[in-house]
Each structure stands twice: as structure tokens, then as C-alpha cells.
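Researcher: For the record, we're logging two predictions in this thread. I'll number them. Prediction 1 follows.
Model: Prediction 1, sequence and structure:
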Amino acid sequence: LCEAGSFSVGNAASCSLCPAGTFSGSSGSGECSKCPAGTYVSESGAKGCHNCDLNFALKRRIGMAHCDLCPDSGSTFGTDKCYRKIRMKCDPSFDECEKTIDNDVNTYGVTIHILHAPAGTQEYRSHWQYTLDQVANKVKGFIVWPRKYYDVSSSRNLQITLYDSYKQELTRCYIHTDFVHPYSMHECAASNVKYMKINHSYDERNRREVSLAEFALYAG
């Protein structure tokens, strides 16, 4: 009998490995099964398939050798469509802000609460502020990646404020990030967004600083 991960056709004396995108979970198989939608396997001879992260991949096709990822680092937000990741820049630009949008979860930015900032600290260093490359008409929400290997018993609350092209406030969204999960996803709907600011929430005024590895905003 052919071992799991392989198959033989009819009375064939030799066994063949299941090709990428398929698997055989038991011995004696006459054919391989395609990986279910939302799963994949890139190597041949697989006994099972791997789950895709469906917050970043679509669950539409079977027999996939790789996850059906949203283009350009987009996110599904748990739906069956992709939301695009919005390009933005720090405004003003400084190192602690740039590290929050450098596409590297191993770097992190730190912002100091304005109440705890040393004398002479520039006001802008108490928050991160961004300008979107273009107006986002239908913002879906955002994903936050916390600082890795930080005190896992700690948590931080952040306030996200979205503004229009005239810098008029559109909405505020509050998030509670923990340091156990690799990222957290939050809906924050708004239209005609051009600017954004991240800072400590009022309830976190006793926290001196907040660390953030990566932040991404998404729109339909």
C-alpha cells in the first residue's frame, strides 16, 4: 500500500507523491484530495493542508499550493473581499513615527504621554500623526501589531482620530491592544479621510509611554 501523502493508480506497482495543493491523509489511496478552500500545501507528499490566515487571504478556491492573499498587503477583515492597505506618511516625520509604518514588526516606535514628557520635548512627539497619500472614501478599519516580546501582562489603550482634507475631525476610535496576540483588528468606519493621529487615550494618562510595532489603515 502507498503511504499517506502518496497514491497509486489502478494496479500500478509504484507510488507517486501527492502534488502541491493536494494531500492524502491515509495509506492505500488511489488519488489525492484537493486542499479545501482557505487552506494550502506547497510541498509534495503532504498528509494534510495548512490553514491560511483568513484576515489576509480569501477563502474561494480549492487545491491551492499557496494562500490566496489579498494584493498589496490588503486585508479581508474576516469577509470574502479584500480591503486595500492605504499608503501614508508621517507628518511630521521622525524616527519613532516612521517605525510604525515601515512594514517591519521587529521595529517599534515609542510615544510619550504629553503629561509625562520632559521639559522641552516637542509636542508632536506625544503622538503619531499621518497624512494619507490620497483621500480614502470608505475606510473600513485598521490593524495594529504591538511591540514583540514586551511584558505580556501589560496592555495599552490607544485613540485613533480620523480627519478630512480640511483637518476637521470625522471620528475617534479606541483600541485595547494586548501583547499576547500578534496583531489586533478593529473596525473604524469613516469617509473622505485624509489625516490621522494616534495617541494615548484619556484613560491611559497614567501610562508614561506606548510602544507600537506597526499600524495599517484599510479602505474599500
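Researcher: Logged. Prediction 2.
Model: Prediction 2, sequence and structure:
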Amino acid sequence: CSTRHELGSIILTTNLDFDKWPDVFGDARMTEALIDRLTHRADIHVMNGESYRFRQTLELRKRVAKEN
């Protein structure tokens, strides 16, 4: 058993859904075990919204285009 397991908090962020993780890690069974360990007693917050930074980038590009 890991000495860290259930003794501290971990914050993990990703833009990939769990079903895409095996593509990244390459081994579906190991990825399933990893997700199982990470999500046990987890609070999962799924945010599906427009990116604030992306919107800022688009606005900046529009301003630069107008200036040129």
C-alpha cells in the first residue's frame, strides 16, 4: 500500500475525459487501476464551459487586426 494513499490531498486537472486516458498511458488495465485509485473517495468536478483565456485571445487578435 502506498504511504501517500488516503493520507493527503491531491489536486489533478486535465482536459481529457477518463475514456481517453488509455490512449495517453498506453495500457488500458494499468490506466483503469490508476483511475480507480485516483477516484476512490474523490470529489470530481467536471467543467464544460467556454475557456476564459481562449476568449481573451480571440479578443486580442481582433484588436490587433483592427490596428493593422
